[in-house]
Design the sequence.
């Protein structure tokens, strides 16, 4: 039995020597192998590419990608000035990227929030997600639902003195865009029906006209139009009255009035209704537009 026990000890020692020798081989191999590169631990910095292609009153649209990871979709962050509006994944299909043989899922489409559809001018910027890096074409300015007199209410009325009249307001915009509606304030004493919206050049060329979709009661009446206008150019928006006009005296006595991108330069009137108004007035005759920019 003593012999057998010694033999077992010898066998165990042989296994131990073999294990130690194997560890030594492994350690030597690791020591002689090249050290891993820094790039294996730190991937290359992103190489961003992208553009804000359109910001309007419906959507904010463009594309964004990291050229060092072209088969991975990234996200973008959208701001109104300094105010964060939200993030959007840039994962929509883009035909032009596909045609170039690039992974094509890098487009984004972000609904324009109601917070910027308040008639004021807003600066929309889009940045690569989690960074302060703007996309190409960012920022862009938009104005949605702008009007000359968004909260004004007439303080008086005037009789048509048995005549029909055409009257309205000369205006311009600091931004090119679309007039989507014309509106006028119908006095309670002016019967509903038969009123027509018109927009003219400042020299008297009629550009568009449309009937008002009138309510039974007094107040703002609306006509739907679709007229592109150019920044810095003056136009006149007018309507006809048959009996009584709503107005506020002296509004333009101290000069023009600016609201958002729109400036009202003064009022004009003429008789009969339907003619281009040429007589200036400092009263507000309550012709107005609803404006969206850009086109």
Sequence:
């Amino acid at each position: 039995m003593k012999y057998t026990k010694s033999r077992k000890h010898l066998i165990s020692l042989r296994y131990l020597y073999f294990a130690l020798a194997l560890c030594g081989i492994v350690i030597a191999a690791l020591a002689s192998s090249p050290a891993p590169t820094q790039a294996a631990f730190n991937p290359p910095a992103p190489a961003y590419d992208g553009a804000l292609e359109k910001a309007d009153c419906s959507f904010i649209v463009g594309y964004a990608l990291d050229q060092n990871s072209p088969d991975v979709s990234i996200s973008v962050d959208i701001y109104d000035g300094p105010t964060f509006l939200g993030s959007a994944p840039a994962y929509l299909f883009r035909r032009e990227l596909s045609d170039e043989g690039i992974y094509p899922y890098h487009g984004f489409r972000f609904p324009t929030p109601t917070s910027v559809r308040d008639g004021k001018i807003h600066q929309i910027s889009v940045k690569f997600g989690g960074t302060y890096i703007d996309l190409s074409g960012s920022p862009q300015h938009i104005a949605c639902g702008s009007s000359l007199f968004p909260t004004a209410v007439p303080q008086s009325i005037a009789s048509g003195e048995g005549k029909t009249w055409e009257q309205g307001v000369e205006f311009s915009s600091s931004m090119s865009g679309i007039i989507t509606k014309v509106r006028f304030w119908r006095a309670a004493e002016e019967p509903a029906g038969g009123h027509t919206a018109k927009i003219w050049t400042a020299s008297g060329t009629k550009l568009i006209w449309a009937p008002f979709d009138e309510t039974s009661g007094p107040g703002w009446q609306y006509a739907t139009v679709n007229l592109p206008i150019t920044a810095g150019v003056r136009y006149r928006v007018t309507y006809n009255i048959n009996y009584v006009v709503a107005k506020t005296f002296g509004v333009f006595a101290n000069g023009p009035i600016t609201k958002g991108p729109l400036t009202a330069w003064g009022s004009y009137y003429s008789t009969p209704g339907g003619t281009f108004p040429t007589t200036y007035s400092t009263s507000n005759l309550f012709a107005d537009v609803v404006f969206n920019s850009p086109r």
